[in-house]
Amino acid sequence: MKLGKVEFCHFLQILALFLCLSGMNQAEFSRSRSKPYFQSGRTRIKRSWVWNQFFVLEEYMGTDPLYVGKLHSDVDKGDGSIKYILSGEGASSIFIIDENTGDIHATKRLDREEQAYYTLRAQALDRLTNKPVEPESEFVIKIQDINDNEPKFLDGPYTAGVPEMSPVGTSVVQVTATDADDPTYGNSARVVYSILQGQPYFSVEPKTGVIKTALPNMDREAKDQYLLVIQAKDMVGQNGGLSGTTSVTVTLTDVNDNPPRFPRRSYQYNVPESLPVASVVARIKAADADVGPNAEMEYKIVDGDGLGVFKISVDKDTQEGIITIQKELDFEAKTSYTLRIEAANMHVDPRFLSLGPFSDMTTVKIIVEDVDEPPVFTSRLYSMVVSEAAKVGTIIGTVAAHDPDASNSPVRYSIDRNTDLERYFNIDANSGVITTAKSLDRETNAVHNITVLAMESQNPAQIGRGYVAITILDINDNAPEFAMEYETTVCENAQAGQVIQKISAIDKDDPPNGHQFYFSLTTEAANNHNFTLQDNKDNTATVLTRRNGFRRQEQSVFYLPIFIVDSGSPSLSSTNTLTIRVCDCDADGIAQSCNAEAYILPAGLSTGALIAILACVLTLLVLVLLIVTMRRRKKEPLIFDEERDIRENIVRYDDEGGGEEDTEAFDMAALRNLNIIRDTKTRRDVTPEIQFLSRPTFKSIPDNVIFREFIWERLKEADMDPCAPPYDSLQTYAFEGNGSVAESLSSLDSISSNSDQNYDYLSDWGPRFKRLADMYGTGPECLYS
């Protein structure tokens, strides 16, 4: 049988190891069972027992147990009187011993990577007494390693990055493979690295696994990612060694090695002159093959005649240059602008300055287009003044506007009435002169803000707006008056010269130098004997008493007219009446009671008590009226109907009636006939609002359906009919159905319907129907003809 190259190598390794072990088996280990003793001339050590040193190869694949070694005691004479036993790790389950010979075998496949050695204990026993003849001894069985594990990259696959344009030998990443075999024995765990894919761009250090660049000037813009395959092989890379692989993804990171470049040398844009300030005119962009911060750039206007009219900024997201307007454009003043714009990288790498300047220039021409513009006022805001005494038609001021276009169309003026709702002002449509249209009042509105519209006569849609602030100048047209409604009291025990009130005045006018008021009593009140007035010369006055003591029984209220004059030109005056009440005061002069009625009705009831009594009487009257009304409503029936509906009412009669022959008392046909429509009942306490349509007649259908539809119709009518009392009531119906094979047998129905049907056949139905045959038969013994 021929062996392959790999199998042959393994065989040689096992053979060499076996030869080494066979030489080691000659060494003997001895153990003293007692202390050694010495005799003159020589020393003798008593030997206990001997066995071989044990090593076992892992991964044994044979069918027979693997021989490990032999245990032997010098007490054993080979006569079978000694037996050997084994204990410890794997005893009996993995390792077995021949109790007669002491041979040890392994019964299972062993793996050094799972357990490298086993510790066991051996003992020799007397077979007859089962007593130990030697002390128990411990030994170790070591598992000998073979190359049965390939190297593994536990951290793979790997990803790494290296800057583009890096020099040769730049370290990228280090890969590491581990081998589970014994690193202290042979070359089974000695790994070397090699690159299977990724050459000639990268290389790997065989011993360390460090990946490095192998080519200079690798350009990210040409290719930005590489996939490498790295191999790790044990046995120092020799033939027969095991290997493992992993992948490494290397990404070239960007550096600023590309300057910005404009796709075009010049650009042209047209913009209307009416474009508002801060509007975007154009967007331009310089191309840069780099990415991220290396592609960030700034734009600036370096030359041209639009430096103060336009500005350029950068969009941080798109790296575009945004040209916007800084000032209003005017086609009549300038029709075009030329800008020289530069784009430059913000982060320049000095290593790549040799590649050229990292900036570029372009020219932008902006053409201003003419548009029909609205009229423009000579001023954004006009300030005017007018006296509130101005007569209607007084000229206040003039506004002016013109058409800025080359056509210079005439302008007509008007006032935006939304800003002059009361129409206080007018404007001349041609001249722009503003005049008063109504009398003005500064106290009502001191400043009027109006908007003046200027329209082109040739194009009324073009409207310009001007703003006018009209201030109303004050005149003395309001007389002074009390600053507030005073509640003045005087005590009955007041002394002469006592201050009872301090008053002040207000004036709606607004004189330039402020108000100055003068207070005095009117001519009629100047000589009264009760009160006097003192002007304090500070726009206030003081009211004082002229005599001692006041009595409420004599006079409870005094009216003091006060004359107030302002300092306007011409001055205005007014007479204001101060009401003074006489009150009963305590020792501190605080008013307690100011009602004269307390003295007039000292023995009677107070006003509060009278009001309470009157309220009680009115409440009782209301309750009586409510009770009477409710009783009257209870006596009236809710439904007025000449014929009571016997299906929904309990009717009591005091007579016995005529038995079955008495069919005149009630009309029972309505209980069974679906085709009879009841009259709509009217409630006295509810106004009918819904009119019901008559129900359709029923066709001949099964009785169960008829009953269901009958009850459903009655239930629906009871739920929806606002005229049926009460809403929560028991609805009782007596309905036999229709469509019976034997037709109706009711005598009541026969009588009420005046039926001419022949009932002679009832005589043939037997004695049970004899009574019916006598009632409905046509013979001489018939009860009815």
From TrEMBL:
Domain Cadherin: 73-153, 154-262, 263-377, 378-482, 482-599
Subcellular location: Cell membrane
Source organism superkingdom: Eukaryota
A GO CC term assigned to this protein in UniProt: catenin complex
Residue intervals passing through the bilayer: 599-628
Listed GO biological process terms: adherens junction organization; calcium-dependent cell-cell adhesion via plasma membrane cell adhesion molecules; cell migration; cell morphogenesis; cell-cell adhesion mediated by cadherin; cell-cell junction assembly; homophilic cell adhesion via plasma membrane adhesion molecules
Record Pfam families: CADH_Y-type_LIR, Cadherin
Entry keyword annotation includes Manganese: no
Coarse class of the protein's main subcellular location: membrane
Family matches, as InterPro entries: Cadherin, Cadherin-like_dom, Cadherin-like_sf, Cadherin_CS, Cadherin_Y-type_LIR, Catenin-bd_sf
Membrane topology: Single-pass type I membrane protein
Family matches, as SUPFAM superfamilies: Cadherin-like
Alphabetic keyword roster: Calcium, Cell adhesion, Cell membrane, Cleavage on pair of basic residues, Glycoprotein, Membrane, Metal-binding, Repeat, Signal, Transmembrane, Transmembrane helix
Any GO molecular function: cadherin binding
Nucleotide-binding recorded as keyword: no
Secretion signal span: 1-27
Its job: Cadherins are calcium-dependent cell adhesion proteins.
Record's protein name: Cadherin-7
